[in-house]
């Protein structure tokens, strides 16, 4: 980070209370979604590498602060991506005390079959410097990082050629929650996060549509399913957005503050282990708003049927 950026960050952090109060009218009118993955005291190597974990004690603190900031019930949404064990055992326990209903964005195939998400599987192969895998990616001109650019056909070919110990990959990735504890629970919602966690932009439009539909067909039968979609790795393009709209997804989420939001596309704010006090949490929210310079759009969750 450059010197100037550091000073700017310091000033915004110091002034976070003041700035937050100035922006409060905007925050009160809109509603904000927070993006989490795992809540655990023992994160996996994969979760550590990609900063996907928040300790339960820090998570509790964050929820306390958010609950105070957003006085109105349901004016913020907590979302968990990927279906990790602690997000249910630790995360829901804490949220339940505050009477907060989160949404879990899940990949049915992975949870049902205890099979690693594409992102963790490929990240594992990259980490292990699996020669066969690397060579295949290079020959097929798959760009790095491979997990963002590999498609289903390519991965299947690699898996056939490689003898991969799935148990090792799951150890690296982190445990999944038990899907039967999620479905039909009145304490939470579930949403679509693709079938196997391929990066949406790596798939052709046809295959992307097939993929989201496979997940939808499995999840739609559950009472607590909402037709919301969260992009894997937060990445998307206009074609994929159009496909989701054609399939009538009412809310679509990304998780990086890089684009102007429109229609039913919403950004999410990712809090992490460092956001362990009110000032830092307010800072993250301010940055999220300022980054999009007024174009920031938050989801509204006052109505469960929304
Ligand atoms: Zn994900």
How would you describe this structure to a colleague?
- This protein has 14 helices and 9 strands.
- The protein has helices at residues 3-14, 16-29, 45-49, 56-69, 85-97, 108-113, 118-127, 131-139, 146-149, 152-161, 166-173, 205-219, 238-246, 278-291, and strands at residues 32-36, 38-39, 53-54, 76-81, 103-106, 189-192, 225-230, 251-253, 265-266.
- It is of the alpha/beta class.
- Mean pLDDT is 86; it is low at 293-306.
- A 7-stranded parallel sheet has the order 1-4-5-6-7-8-9. Strands 2-3 form a two-stranded parallel ribbon.
- It folds into 2 domains: 9-114 and 177-291, TIM Barrel, CATH 3.20.20; 116-175, no CATH class.
- Bound molecules: zinc ion.
- The site of zinc ion has 5 residues, from loops.
**C-alpha end-to-end distance:** 41 Å
Oligomeric state of shown chains: single chain
Q: Number of domains in the coordinates?
A: 2
Roughly how many Å is the radius of gyration? 19 Å
Helix content: 40-55%
CATH superfamily of the largest domain: Glycoside hydrolase/deacetylase
What portion of the residues fall into strands of 2 or more residues? 5-15%
Structural class: alpha/beta
Poorly predicted runs:
293-306
Number of helices in the DSSP assignment: 14
CATH uppermost class of the largest domain: Alpha Beta
Q: Major sheet, described briefly?
A: 7 strands, parallel
CATH topology of the largest domain: TIM Barrel
């Amino acid at each position: 980070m450059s010197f100037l950026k550091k000073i700017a960050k310091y000033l915004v952090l110091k002034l976070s209370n003041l700035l937050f109060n100035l922006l409060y009218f905007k925050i009160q009118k809109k509603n904000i979604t927070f993006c989490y993955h795992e809540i655990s005291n023992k994160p996996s190597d994969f979760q550590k590498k990609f900063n996907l974990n928040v300790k339960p004690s820090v998570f509790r603190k964050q929820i306390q602060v958010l609950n105070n900031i957003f006085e109105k019930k349901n004016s913020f949404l907590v979302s968990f991506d990927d279906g990790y064990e602690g997000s249910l055992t630790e995360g829901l326990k804490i949220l339940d005390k505050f009477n907060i209903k989160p949404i879990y964005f899940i990949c049915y195939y992975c949870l049902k079959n205890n099979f690693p998400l594409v992102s963790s599987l490929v990240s594992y192969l990259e980490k292990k410097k699996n020669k066969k895998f690397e060579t295949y990616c290079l020959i097929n001109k798959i760009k790095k990082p491979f997990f963002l650019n590999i498609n289903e056909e390519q991965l299947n070919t690699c898996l056939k050629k490689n003898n991969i110990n799935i148990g090792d990959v799951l150890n690296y990735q982190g445990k999944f929650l038990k899907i039967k504890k999620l479905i039909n629970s009145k304490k939470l919602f579930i949403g679509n996060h693709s079938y196997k966690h391929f990066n949406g932009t790596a798939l052709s439009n046809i295959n992307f549509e097939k993929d989201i539909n496979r997940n939808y067909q499995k999840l739609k039968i559950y009472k607590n399913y909402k037709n919301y979609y969260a992009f894997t790795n937060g990445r998307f393009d206009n074609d994929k957005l159009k496909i989701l709209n054609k399939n009538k997804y009412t809310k679509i989420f990304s998780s990086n503050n890089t684009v102007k939001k429109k229609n039913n596309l919403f950004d999410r704010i990712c809090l992490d282990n460092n956001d362990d006090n009110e000032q830092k949490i307010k800072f993250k929210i301010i940055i999220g708003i300022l980054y999009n310079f007024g174009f920031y759009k938050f989801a509204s969750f006052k109505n469960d049927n929304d």
